[in-house]
Amino acid sequence: IILRHFWNQEHTLAMVLTCVACACVFETSDAQRAHYKLEWHRVNLKRKVAGLSPLPEADYERRRAALLGEGGEQDPKIIDTLNCNVCRKNFSQQSLLDQHLRSKKHIQRQKAWEKAHPEQQKLEEEDAESEAPGVEGATCPPVRQERDGKEEQG
Predict the structure, then answer these.
(1) Under 8 Å between Cβ of 147 and 79
(2) Sheet harboring 151-153: ordered strands across?
(3) How far apart (Å, rounded) are the C-alpha atoms in residues 145 and 62?
(4) Of the candidates 67, 85, 103, which is a domain's last residue?
């Protein structure tokens, strides 16, 4: 929690609660704690780490609204993510998933998973063969998530 001391108009010492990442001032500690849970705050933390200036809340909301489709639904291209079920990781781009599937950690986890779940591995291989070919050299097919949280093979 960041506290700033200053002399107020009555010439008494007052404390102000602030968020350095968002350049905000809060009247109560509860308001400050609630702010720290907002996505806007998380975006500004990432901007601060990257050396960028804070994004004003109005600009953040405008950008967020641009990403949302009509009726407040998010564009499906943004919601859909590629997943590695073995490592339980999500990727926004196919190239990132491909890179992950070639990593040493993934290959080690895949081998360990295959030993622990041989019957499940056979089912997944059969499913992958019956569908369109997935990522070349991948032993775990990528999965796309729908907006309602259900999974379907991709």
Answers:
(1) yes
(2) 89-91, 82-84, 143-145, 151-153
(3) 26
(4) 67
Note the helical H segments in 37-142.
Answer: 39-49, 57-67, 76-79, 94-101, 104-116, 118-130
Cα distance between residue 43 and residue 60, in whole Å: 9
Per-10-residue mean pLDDT of the chain, 154 residues long, equals: 53 71 86 89 88 88 75 50 77 82 90 78 54 37 41 42
Q: pTM of the prediction?
A: 0.40
SS3 content of the chain, % helix, strand, coil (to 5): 45, 20, 35
One domain, residues 122 and 84: yes
User: What is the number of residues in the chain?
Assistant: 154
Residue 54, domain extent: 2-67
- Total count of domains within the chain: 2
Say whether both 108 and 135 belong to one domain: yes
Domain co-membership, 17 together with 63: yes
Question: Is 103 in the same domain as 145?
Answer: yes
Q: Distances from the Cα of 98 to the Cαs of 45, 77, 89, 109, in angstroms?
A: 29, 18, 12, 15
Tell me what pLDDT residue 65 has: 81
Q: Where does a domain end: 67, 90, 105?
A: 67
